[in-house]
Amino acid sequence: MSDLLNKLRKNSTIKDTDVLADSKFFNEKDTITTTVPAINIALSGKITGGFAPGLTIWAGPSKHFKTSFSLLMAKAYMDKYADAVLMFYDSEFGTPQAYFDSFKIDTSRVLHTPITDIEQLKFDIMTQLEQIGRGEHVMIIIDSVGNLASKKEVDDALKQNSAADMTRAKQLKSLFRMVTPHLTIKDIPMVVVNHTYMTQEMFSKPVVSGGTGIYYSADNIFILGRQQEKEGKDVIGYNFIINVEKSRFVKEKSKIPIEVSWTEGISRWSGLMDMALESGHVIKPKVGWFQRVDMETGEILDKSYRMNDTYKSDFWTPILKCPKFSAFVENKYVAASGSIMQEDEVDSVYEELESE
Fold first, then answer.
1. How far does Cα 219 stand from its chain's mean position?
2. β-strand 289-292 against 305-306: which pairing, if any?
3. 10 is a domain residue
4. Of 251, 267, 283, which one is at a domain's C-terminal end?
5. Phi, psi (5° rounding) for residue 304?
6. pLDDT digits (tens, 9 = 90+) for 248-304
């Protein structure tokens, strides 16, 4: 370290100032891996990746499994750290204890805080964040900000004032503007459930509600779509599509399928078959049947499987362990991080200009 750099570091009034190469905020990233590979891919672009500290938004219409995906992440975090605490801010009261029990989350480690307006949430969460230190294992879920009113809206209703509320988006932006630095500095993952609305264009598209503040602050924004899964005329579950609206790690506009059934819940292996077929690790010898392929020799590995028979660890573990499959997934989904400027080309232009 140069004398000047060391002097500037010591002179800083901010205690966490450090040389970028040694900064704990860049070099000590915590990664939490969930039990569902496709969720890990949506969060990081990698099968064995996952989520890191920062802000993740699950957005979509009602009954689109937003809270369940949030609780799946919380379960992974609490399993990794035995001392972890989940702060659950609840504005909709649509998450009974049975939801937590279904994910095997220890509710004695969950702090449940009911909230009625944005300002109440902002004041409480900032008070909590000021008292949390880096190294204390805390995760935050807000369920949800979609229907959360501003204090002005509540006060106007009490006064029977029907004037339109123009403060809600401003208060949400203020909330996330204040919270975001704490999440990174203190290594805290926060997951927010939100709603979407459709634009009024000729070809309408879903947009996350709450204004631009959420977009600016979020590390990940996922908009969920779904289709019914039927057996005959009976609905037996849903096929969800995770649309990557914004990500610092995954190529935006990526689409990752997740299957959920009434009886089995989230399928651990959902979304992988399409990837394996595209990569060549699995082939379809005939309609409705699948076979695995040895990518080194090109040989068919074993018998044919029906789709239902592929939802097993024995089928997927060898594929997930294959370096070529991991490389295929990362190449397909991980956001590029190469050089922005092509220095050789720039240098050659300058050389030509100087020679003229």
1. 8
2. antiparallel
3. no
4. 267
5. -85, 145
6. 999 999 999 999 988 778 999 999 999 999 999 999 999 999 999 998 888 998 889
Q: How many domains does the chain have?
A: 2
Residue 291, token pair as written in the block = 């076979």
Query: Parallel, antiparallel, or unpaired for β 282-283 and 289-292?
Result: antiparallel
CB atoms < 10 A from the CB of 331, how many?
11
Angle between helix axes 272-279 and 313-320 (nearest 10 degrees) is 50
pLDDT at 217 over 80: yes
Task: Note down the domain range covering 64.
Answer: 15-267
C-beta of residue 84 within 8 angstroms of C-beta of residue 141: no
CA-based angle 38:330:23, to the nearest 5?
A: 100
Secondary-structure breakdown of the chain: helix, strand, coil percentages, each rounded to the nearest 5: 40, 25, 35
Neighbours of 296 (CB within 10 A): 8
* Residue 7 belongs to some domain of the structure: no
Is the pTM higher than 0.90? The answer reads no
The separation between the first and the last C-alpha atoms of the chain, rounded to the nearest angstrom, is 41
- Residue that finishes a domain, picked among 206, 239, 267: 267
Residue 141 near residue 191 (C-beta atoms within 8 A) = yes
Q: Are residues 305 and 254 in the same domain?
A: no
Contact 208, 197 (CB under 8 A): no
3-state secondary structure 73-133: HHHHHHHHCCCCEEEEEECCCCCCHHHHHHCCCCHHHEEEEECCEHHHHHHHHHHHHHHCC
Over residues 9-37, the mean pLDDT reads: 84
According to DSSP, residue 32 is labeled B
